[in-house]
Design brief:
Elements: H1 4-7, E1 9-10, H2 12-19, H3 23-31, E2 38-40, E3 43-47, H4 48-57
Antiparallel strand pairs: 1-3, 2-3
Helix pairs in contact: 2-3
Length: 65
Amino acid sequence: MQSQSESGLMTIQEAAKFLAVSKSTLYGWVWQRRIPFVKVGRSLRFELGELQKFVHSNRFPARSK
């Protein structure tokens, strides 16, 4: 089995850990099409660059006092 560094793609476990969410949350986001993913056969995979874009696009600035 290849790791993320070998294939360039992350497993559901690796992506969930990177995003600090549960696997079930990540599966929900995939089902809702809220997050980009790749299907490899029946498996889900995630590109690191796309996950970083997802994090950046969901970032909110701090409120100024």
